[in-house]
Amino acid sequence: MASQLTEYRGSGLAGGMGIAALALGGLALANALIAKRDERRYPPRGRFVTVDGVRLHYLEAGSGPPVVVLHGNVSAADDALASGIFDRLAQNHRVVAFDRPGMGHSERPRGPDWTPEDQARLLAHAFAMLGIDRPVVIGHSYGTLVALALALDHPDAADGLVLMAGYYFPTKRLDALLAAPAAVPVVGDLLRHTVSPPFAKVMMPAVLKTLFAPRPVPDDLEETFPAALTTRPGQLRANAQDGVTLVPAAERMQHRYAGLRLPVAIIAGLEDRVVEQREQSGRLHRVIPHSTLHWVPDAGHMVHYAAPGLVVRSVDQLAAERAPAGS
């Protein structure tokens, strides 16, 4: 009797595991099909360049002094279009907005940790390939660390920085802890192909509300920004890696900021609910005495949507100070 009961329990466990495996397989297939659908809905709007074996997607328009835009985490180059800064800048500048590795339509191969320094090195090589000569670099959120890494590690790559809603000094962050499992090999792969995409889609409205608060989420955001692409399995890995590398990168880089000599404009929303900007942007301004600091009232983390004109004016001012090539 005991052996029969044990056999029954064993077969029941095996059956349950089989059902679970089938369910996860079905979920993975569904997520793959949804990702393909979303990619058809939001096809690439720009061009591609292969740099060090990595295929990068970028948007480009206009002519004049060069400007490069680097978006934040859980985002894409289309953010520059949706906010309006891309078209405004293109009136007087050659503006290039990159999908950072793993975001939008750019690749993120396995291998590197894809720290801000890794991404800056790749982008510096992309600048050389595309003939982008010492641009003003705009960084938003995580993109500010990539912009700073460009200036610190590749001093000839940029002539000025506009840093928006950035994170510059290490703090304890719950979001980094929550991102960790999805960045772990095998476990992360299982999560991002099965339960993570539908969970991310369910959470997206709340995430957007927090990002834009205290202002409302723009009514046309679904048409102008491909939020659905940020929940694909591939980009979820990139999102998680950026989340995990955020704090260590700030720890590594914070002691070098004071050595920056290029012009720096810092822009922050006074009511940012993602990053404590008085602690971050205010402190960075003190560390870089020649920087300018612009506080935007009634604005949160997506400060460039609240004050696109300020972003463009800051770029114009830095471009006017741009040193002659070769100096």
TrEMBL record:
<keyword id="KW-1133">Transmembrane helix</keyword>
<protein>
    <submittedName>
        <fullName>Pimeloyl-ACP methyl ester carboxylesterase</fullName>
    </submittedName>
</protein>
<dbReference type="InterPro" id="IPR050266">
    <property type="entry name" value="AB_hydrolase_sf"/>
</dbReference>
<dbReference type="InterPro" id="IPR029058">
    <property type="entry name" value="AB_hydrolase_fold"/>
</dbReference>
<keyword id="KW-0472">Membrane</keyword>
<dbReference type="InterPro" id="IPR000073">
    <property type="entry name" value="AB_hydrolase_1"/>
</dbReference>
<keyword id="KW-0812">Transmembrane</keyword>
<feature type="domain" description="AB hydrolase-1">
    <location>
        <begin position="65"/>
        <end position="305"/>
    </location>
</feature>
<dbReference type="Pfam" id="PF00561">
    <property type="entry name" value="Abhydrolase_1"/>
</dbReference>
<feature type="transmembrane region" description="Helical">
    <location>
        <begin position="12"/>
        <end position="35"/>
    </location>
</feature>
